[in-house]
Amino acid sequence: MDAVDVARWQFAITTVYHFLFVPITIGMSLIIAVFHTQWLRTRNLEYYRLTKFFGKLFLINFALGLVTGIVQEFQFGMNWSDYSRFVGDIFGAPLAFEALLAFFLESTFLGIWIFGWGRIPEKLHAGAIWLVHIGTVLSAYFILAANSFMQNPVGFRFNPATGRAEMSDFWAVLTNKVQLVTFPHVVLSAYMVGGGVVMGVALWLLRKHAGTPDESMYRRATRFGAIFALVASLGVIVSGDMQGKIMTEVQPMKMAAAEGLYETTSNAPFSVLSIGSLDGSEATRIIEIPGLLSFMATGSFDGTVEGINDLKGSEQEMAQQVAERYGPQVAALVTADSYTPLIPLTYWSFRFMIGLGALTMLFAALTLWGTRRGAVPVSTWWVWVAVLTPLAPVFANSWGWIFTEVGRQPWIVYGLMTTSTGVSPSVSTGEVWFSMIAYTLVYAVLAIIEVKLFLTYVRRGADPFEEPAHPASKGEDAPLEFAY
Amino acid sequence: MDLQLIWFGLIGLLWAGYLVLEGFDFGVGALLPVLGKGRDAADTEKRRRVMLTTIGPHWDGNEVWLLTAGGATFAAFPEWYATMFSGFYLAFLALLVALIVRNMGFEYRGKRNNDAWRQRWDWAIIGGSIVAPLLVGVALTNVVRGLPINRDMEYVGNFFTLLNPMSLLGGLVILGLSLTHGAFFLALKTKGDIQRDAQALGTTLGLGTAVLAVVLLLWLGFTQGTVWSWITTVIAAGALLGAIYANTRAREGWAFTGTAVTMAAAVATYFLTLYPNVMPTTLPGGTSLTIENASSSELTLKIMTVAALVFTPIVLLYTGYTYWAFRKRLGTKNIPVAVQVP
Fold this sequence. Notes:
The structure holds two protein chains of two kinds. Chain A is mainly alpha-helical. Chain A has one domain (14-264, 306-458). Chain A is built from 14 helices and eight strands. Chain A has a two-stranded antiparallel ribbon with strand order 1-2. Chain A has a two-stranded antiparallel sheet with strand order 3-6. In chain A, α1 packs antiparallel against α2 (45-79), α4 packs across α6 (177-208) and α12 runs antiparallel to α13 (381-406). Chain A is globular, with a radius of gyration of 24 Å. Chain B has one domain: Up-down Bundle (Formate dehydrogenase/DMSO reductase fold), CATH 1.20.1630. Chain B has a two-stranded antiparallel sheet. In chain B, α1 packs across α11 (252-274) and α7 (115-145) packs across α8 (165-189). The chains are: A mainly alpha, B mainly alpha. Chains A and B meet through α2, α3, β2 and α14 of A and α3, α4, α5, α6 and α12 of B.
């Protein structure tokens, strides 16, 4: 592997890993905010206990999202310095906005929320977790605006004097049409994850505590999580459908690659499964749904979807036009041996994303049915539902990102810069290898520690209620409600 | 031109903010084995928990200053970001690993009631809190001192190029300042034995750091100094001595303010020495990165300026609130029983 390959692997590993924790943070922070608010509104102790219980799980997860996020901020410059030089004028701004508007809000108010039990006024305390949630959503907005620029560069002009792309319209960058469909898709997927985690954990505890006084509390959380995941997943489908059409418009190659469709076809079918190499040499589809790909891409079952063979030519033409328009400085950035992404990975990642998302919906719906009118899901089969419901949407998110990033290749910025021209010239292959191994080892150890700790806390369940101390009623030496 | 200057100044402010704030939580983390040593095992554990709880609500927000400094450099000076982050590759890798393990330590240490578990995280916190400020100091000093950068703005040295005497001294100074700042923070935020010990240790640490800092700032001043950087050098030195004096008179607030000013003035000295470069080259025929040739376009700088003007006061306001909300001093009696999770 050369430096480009290792740098790509490193970005894939660190980013996919980071994004295991991010959607859990976004989704769970909202659910905990709702529980916390419900506790203040109703004084129902179940909500208090659920807030505390899921709060602990949330924090165990949040720590990893936080530390892996620092790497994200640094690695554009570390591994992708030529990319950073070329588009930093545009790409840097949303990152700076993210830090200034989102990270400060999220981190500061999370600190307030963690340590605020019994130390600050109640309403302010509950408000803190809402602000944490708003911070996570703002963060998603800005980082997705940056990513959407890579998918569909808008709001820039090429400056021959500096040899780089420069901002011409920040509003256009923030309201990129790719961004407007990606943002809801990603945030709703995160809500689906949050709902899935809460539902899965609570369902497992509901079985364990069936017939005890805690049954009603876990039932409440199970059903809340299931409804939350189900509603979110409907939004995921709608936004994903809109995204598919925009994607077909701006990156037709990605949609063709998603199906491994080589010839331009109208009424194009969508294959649920396939065998073989997907290299177009043989028909290998099994289980096809007629017209579905056309519908995903164009909104009509009879729509025409361009195939990879035709698109190879048009991508080449696009690259040539860009090179002619901007001159030799850019010509070097848009030249690639092949303008086709890795088809099998694009094909399968698309299906894993959809399949795991559908599984989440199915399990959420089953759980609502299994807990209807006081029923307790007793069969051991439900343990699998409890375990898989959190995992399925998390990995659906991973596959979605793998799909959208792999499907864009060979471009790092679509139509403007290829990935291989973006790496750091001053960093040796050995150094990238070294850092990749270092991150992978550290991340692997942390993953083991995290999962074990998370499961330990799940098994313990919610703590029994203890009277929360009132801020005013505490002496100088009274023990804090929470300390490290 | 003016906007470039403003952003050069703002990035200086972000680094100053970072070191003033995270400086004390680095110090508290690094002093865990010293000030967190009690009469017996139970007392040791309680003291450590007091120390960590004083920085608990703040360290995460403090660290965002680093992320914002990184993000702002990316947006306002993309060439600087690209050259610096790729040039300091292995050093920044080590910095990231140090920050990762210490942050995990803060969050996970108290999650199990198990001595081996706590001990391992203690080492992560201590190690990370020593290595991180050391590396930040080494990196910033290298930026000011100059590095082999070729005409294409690419760093052509290696990891060991960074380990020159002046930069290593810079690392020690930032570490020493963090330790002193952390001790003064603990003196301000704790009561009882920890406070007494922190005060005693703070004076020693402060004097040691003062010697190192004076050597570094004089070295920098005589080789690269300007009138303005000499003024901030004097402020830094004066504030540090004032802080030590205030500490000996048990004026904790003034002592902490003093080291905060020292940290900020030290960063100011660096940036005033650096100006108008952002990363000078030491190679003949190399290109020094300056606020002119490393900066973003006028439009990007304008947008960023508006954002900074609107949002920085809001950030400062709620950050200020956290310090007010958690202003109460803590002692070992305030520490609740450990979570009963094996």
